[in-house]
Each structure stands twice: as structure tokens, then as C-alpha cells.
């Protein structure tokens, strides 16, 4: 049985809170490592927290006919939260006139925080689409909006896939942070990798398809994938990833 509460807190909310705390700790440690810990960086992370919370709520309005109900009880979209957090950072930096890039400080923090937060999703939400693979999981029939849970079929552990991706991304970012020197490129690599992963993992998620057998998150991501290709191509041509790719630079 999936626990409804952890220390008196709803399971999903508990792991989201722990994930935010973990991300905040990693962010502060990364700021200290780079010598960037100050009032400006703290304002930026505050903007991320506020923007992320608002983004998660607003993202659910498109999925319900009742905006008030969505604001109060739903809208736990990670994509909406990430978009809101990014917008929140930009707005906070604009308010205080801070022009330094902060994305590289956030990238490892977001990856590890997401890994922790997704534990709550795995414990409380529909795992994924039915599968015959040996690692398919069974979830309690009490999981909401999950026909597969009621019928007892094995399903993709889609949230475990994401936890594994985020942990691998965190390790890769820690390894690459000393090798990617151009400001903002570490964040670009993480966002690009996550966009591609999230589009692909949607084929195993339990989300409803809306058109051409694609889900709403996939349609949301499609324009971003085009921008990802353009952005990574530009960074590659400028040699920003030469050390990571062990690419020889022409003399």
C-alpha cells in the first residue's frame, strides 16, 4: 500500500519539499565553490522558488475547466514548474539589476532535487503504460486515474526512469562543470538532455495522448527541441564542448 502521509505530510508534497531542500543545499554549495554566494544569488534562487510554484499551478489550468480547482488542488506539472522557475530567476535578476549568468549554478541542484522529488511521484501517481518487460511494476488500485492499477497489469516504472536519468545527469554535471568554461553552457547541456529525455520517456508515461499519439508535454516540448538543436549546434561550432567531447582544436 502506498503511504498517504509521511510525518503527517502528503507523500507527494513531502518528497517535493525534500527535493527543494536538497536543491537549495546543492545550489549554496555550488555558489561557494565558484565564489558566487551573495545577496544576488540568493535573490535569484528566491525567484526560482516563487516562479516554480506559480508555474506548477498555472500549468494545470489548461487541463481542467475549473481554474480555481486547478490552482488549489492540482497542477503538479514539472515542466510548468521548470518554466516558471526560469522565468522567476529572470524577473528577480532584472529587478535587482543582476546581469551575471546563474544557470550553471542551478543545473546540478535542479538535477538532484528532481531525482528526490520524483520519488513522491513514483509512490503516488500512475507509474506508466502497460509493459511486458521484466521490470514492469504493479501499483495499488487506490492510485487515482490509473486503469492499469485497477486491472493489476504490469506498467513501465516511468518515474524510476526519470530518477535514474536525473542522478546520471547530476553526476555528469559535476564531472563536466570544470570542463565547460563558457558561462551558461552547463545549464544548456542539462536542459537539452532533459528535454530530449522527457520527450522520449513520455512514450512510457500514463499521460493521455491528444493528437498524433503524442501527449500534451510532448507537444509542449516539440518547439523546444528545435531550439535545442540550434543552440547545441551553435555551442559546438564555437568550441564550447571541445573538452567534454575530447575534440581536438585546430591549431
Q: Summary?
A:
Helices cover 63% and strands 4% of the residues.
Number of helices: 10
| SSE run | EEHHHHHHHHEEHH
Q: Give the strand content.
A: under 5%
Average pLDDT over all residues: 80
Percentage of residues assigned to helices: 55-70%
Rg from alpha-carbon coordinates: 19 Å
Largest sheet: 2 strands, antiparallel
Number of strands: 4
Low-confidence region ranges: 62-75
Q: Shape, please?
A: globular
For the termini, the CA-CA separation is 63 Å
Strand order of the largest sheet: 1-2
Q: Which class of secondary structure composition applies to the elements?
A: mainly alpha
Walk me through this protein's architecture.
Helix 1 packs antiparallel against helix 5 and helix 2 (39-58) packs antiparallel against helix 4 (78-96). This protein has ten helices and four strands. The longest helix is centred in the N-terminal third of the chain and has 24 residues, at 11-34. It has helices at residues 11-34, 39-58, 67-73, 78-96, 103-124, 147-151, 158-176, 185-201, 216-237, 242-245, and strands spanning 5-6, 9-10, 209-211, 214-215. Strand 1 and strand 2 (9-10) form a beta hairpin.
